[in-house]
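FOLDING PROBLEM:
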Amino acid sequence: MADEEYDTNFNQLLGSFGAHANIQKRQKAERLAAMEPDDGRRKRAGRSRQFNARITDESFALAHLLIKRLSARDGRKWSQADFLEAAIPALAKAEKLGGGA
């Protein structure tokens, strides 16, 4: 009788472990837990559109130089998305288009 009870408890444990586990959700939680708070891989609220473009090597080098300088200035790692979100309103303001902060 004790063996049957042990087997039942063991099967319940295994069943609940596999049946109720959302593997993708758990993997995401583990990945986020391993990241630093200012890690660039964390999603930031408000970014719902993807913007892709081809640029010249010179523009790419200039963008990376600016990202390095901004990262050093602010003491945090700037991503390409952070850079674009700052650059687009600044250019719009310089061109007097509005929308620039």
Observations:
- The chain has a mean pLDDT of 79.
